[in-house]
Amino acid sequence: MITVRALTKRYGGVLAVDGLSFDVEPGMVTGFLGPNGAGKSTTMRMILGLDRPTSGQALVNGRAFATLTEPLREVGALLDPGAVHPGRTGRSHLRVAARANGVSARRVDEVIDQVGLGRAAGRRIKGYSLGMRQRLGIAAALLADPRVLLFDEPMNGLDLDGIRWIRGLLRRLADEGHTVLVSSHLLSEMQQTADRLVVIGRGRMIADATTDDILRGLGQLRVRVRSAQPDALLARLQERGLAARRVEANELEVEDSTAEAVGEVANSFHIPLHHLSDVPPSLEHAYLELTGNSVDYHGRPAERATTPEEAL
Ligand SMILES: Nc1ncnc2c1ncn2[C@@H]1O[C@H](COP(=O)(O)OP(=O)(O)OP(=O)(O)O)[C@@H](O)[C@H]1O
């Protein structure tokens, strides 16, 4: 369990984290989502005792990291997969970490298996791909079998296989009862991975709820409708004050409405429909609504955010 209360970090004139309070519960994957520079890494560093809060608290299992007697047995983290000795092999890197923390050599082989590093464990780290470095970093986080795990942008730079693998690992860890906090600016990834989301922007809390609630509460409902009489349907819907527009030759989209409402209009004018469905709101839509005022640098409209398909 992670408990964050009124957590604040100021670097000179920059308020990196501004009064954040949230809990990260065991048994689920909590996504920590926010645009670049939102304060995710700074928050994680404070939870891990690597940065001192200006005010407020970040507790692991009810205690500040610095006061944990066996910290690596309570909390593991992947922060910067580049921060390893490049001349060592993966296995020797893990053995050094194991020895320093009273972890058995047998456990080193277990985590090598668990992250699928396999034969690469005997090679020097300087020859590792980014995906292999991420796996090694995750192996190090799992080494002392801690109940609380923090992963800072673990999907960064990974291919689809790597992303799927991490998604599966996070799910398994949560199902085993671990407390899992994973940061990302990839909305699509969090939509598929996280049970709960803590969304921040410019160091401030924007939303803290289940992923489903965030999608339901913030995404405007839209309806897709197809008919062989699109002109007539468009005119009737607009007469009723509905925000309908043509999206394809025979297909309309209606903003902020429901399939029932659109179906009733069509039925009352005897316009046959070939398709009628609510469009589920995407996290991307909700996220842009949530963080719209909290990004430092807006792209021009043409530089739209990455869609889930593009991100993969
Ligand atoms: N050591 C530091 N000194 C000064 N400013 C810092 C320091 N570390 C972070 N910041 C600033 O604090 C803010 C939050 O940064 P942080 O890295 O925590 O954001 P983030 O959400 O992790 O972003 P990203 O997704 O880009 O990693 C940024 O404005 C950043 O420039």
TrEMBL record:
<feature type="domain" description="ABC transporter">
    <location>
        <begin position="2"/>
        <end position="227"/>
    </location>
</feature>
<protein>
    <submittedName>
        <fullName>ABC transporter ATP-binding protein</fullName>
    </submittedName>
</protein>
<dbReference type="GO" id="GO:0016887">
    <property type="term" value="F:ATP hydrolysis activity"/>
</dbReference>
<keyword id="KW-0813">Transport</keyword>
<keyword id="KW-0067">ATP-binding</keyword>
<keyword id="KW-0547">Nucleotide-binding</keyword>
<dbReference type="InterPro" id="IPR027417">
    <property type="entry name" value="P-loop_NTPase"/>
</dbReference>
<dbReference type="InterPro" id="IPR017871">
    <property type="entry name" value="ABC_transporter-like_CS"/>
</dbReference>
<dbReference type="Pfam" id="PF00005">
    <property type="entry name" value="ABC_tran"/>
</dbReference>
<dbReference type="InterPro" id="IPR003593">
    <property type="entry name" value="AAA+_ATPase"/>
</dbReference>
<dbReference type="InterPro" id="IPR003439">
    <property type="entry name" value="ABC_transporter-like_ATP-bd"/>
</dbReference>
<dbReference type="GO" id="GO:0005524">
    <property type="term" value="F:ATP binding"/>
</dbReference>
<comment type="similarity">
    <text>Belongs to the ABC transporter superfamily.</text>
</comment>
